[in-house]
Amino acid sequence: MSAYKILLVEDECDDREALNDALIDLGYSVVVAEDGIDALVKIKRMRFNLIITDFQMPKMNGIELLREVKGAGSDVPVVFISGHSTVETSVEAMRLGALDFFLKPVSIEAIKEIIEKVLERETDRTKVSGVSQDRYRLVTKDQNMTQLMDLAKTIASSKASVLIQGDSGTGKELFARLIHKNSPRCSKPFVAVNCAALPDGLLESELFGHEKGAFTGAISRKLGKFELAQGGTILLDEITEMALHLQAKLLRVLQEEEIDRVGGNKPVSTDVRIIATTNQNIETAIKEKSFREDLYYRLNVIPLKIPPLKDRGDDVIVLAEYFIEKYNRIDGRSVKGLTDTAIQLLKSMYWRGNVRELENVIERAVLLCKGKFIEEEDLFITEKPKTETAQKKSSMPLGSLREMEKQLIFNALDQTNGNRTHAAKILGINVRTLRNKLNEYRDQMKILT
Ligand SMILES: Nc1ncnc2c1ncn2[C@@H]1O[C@H](COP(=O)(O)OP(=O)(O)OP(=O)(O)O)[C@@H](O)[C@H]1O
Ligand SMILES: [Mg+2]
């Protein structure tokens, strides 16, 4: 059986079993989940090479699952299967970073094709020298950021807790890794836990572990992340999402340096440095009594506030060039840079999703760019430039997304003189998906004429 691990998320028993059997027949190792919540629990425990998920499911649908997975910083590819898709849902899925979208009944040939594509890409990634060691590199030429990095390195040697605040995608996790890497703990584990990704009960046993028989389903003792991080660093992401009773337990860990496993009867001593992050306003959470003030003071021994990308001067371009190089290597392209108008557009944006959003834009542009330089239209930015209204939450009309997708597909077909296989390759989608979409457009035309 291949070491390649797939998570199959499907609430309908018959569909789940059929696809599971087919994937096993192909030689893959498969873990099944019955809904999005179940999937998140499994994702926390294991690393998957691919997630195949149904779209409509109780508790948490496929899009919500994708949001959680990407929000937790995971780059695992996600493929959707759906009984009743609309162009809007498939575009929304693609926009959030899904790899492909299939309509039920799913042909196993199509699934096999996509798995092979993902495998190929993974092999390429590991073959490309430097990519893995570059993975956590913090790139900046901005003076404030450089000072913050120097500060992070200086405080790395102590065991004091650090609270990193900053908007989503600003690089909080990279800062946490920088501190760990420069600390005397660097040869010990760095363990990250996203406090928002698990329900309270599960988070407690995830952090502190449990004894055999502590609750139904606790068939054996499980070590928590604190014990797994022994001697190293634990990153508690999105700390403000932690329930109050767990905050009390965490406070005890900070004060006593020991943890209580769920169902355990004696504390276990720990030696772990705690780094917490939040993209919420923690002072407001304290005022609203959803975050303990005493815990805040314990965590905030060393505060680091990461500025949003829009306040980092020319970093937008410095980072864009860094990402062009990165994706040139990964995708085997040789894009030389950005045209002046593309630079102006990047500089004029608000970048609500900060560096993560910029990276996604550049990754796509490198893949789709026809010439040597990335042009304004290769960026596919539909959001308005930095204005007061642009600061409000974006609400891109689905109609325009639909148009954008159509335009992307026609551009790719133009570029390949109508060769669907090549066009699908450029778009990074399955040729079957491309065919389905073209059929949809044709049907729409029929309705209009
Ligand atoms: N200065 C930087 N240089 C290079 N890559 C960066 C930089 N800042 C962020 N990134 C990249 O942007 C993405 C988001 O970074 P990271 O996960 O550290 O952000 P975050 O602040 O923890 O986000 P969130 O609040 O959503 O958890 C990652 O892929 C990271 O590698
Ligand atoms: Mg993060």
Structure report:
- With 449 residues, the chain is an alpha/beta fold.
- The protein folds into three domains: 5-127, Response regulator (Rossmann fold); 143-306, P-loop containing nucleotide triphosphate hydrolases (Rossmann fold); 313-448, Helicase, Ruva Protein, domain 3 (Orthogonal Bundle).
- The chain contains 20 helices and 14 strands.
- It has a five-stranded parallel β-sheet with strand order 2-1-3-4-5, sandwiched between helices. Strands 7-8-11-6-12 form a five-stranded parallel β-sheet.
- The termini are far apart.
- It binds adenosine-5'-triphosphate and magnesium ion.
- The site of adenosine-5'-triphosphate has 20 residues, from helix 8 and helix 16.
- Residues 71, 73, 137-140, 166, 168-174, 237, 279, 319, 355-356, 359 line the site of adenosine-5'-triphosphate.
Radius of gyration from the alpha-carbon trace, in angstroms: 23 Å
Query: Number of DSSP helices?
Result: 20
CATH homologous superfamily annotation of the largest domain: P-loop containing nucleotide triphosphate hydrolases
In one word, what is the shape? globular
Beta fraction: 5-15%
Look up the CATH topology of the largest domain.
Rossmann fold
On the 0 to 100 scale, the average pLDDT is 84
Low-pLDDT stretches are: 128-133, 387-399
Helix-strand category? alpha/beta
Tally of strands: 14
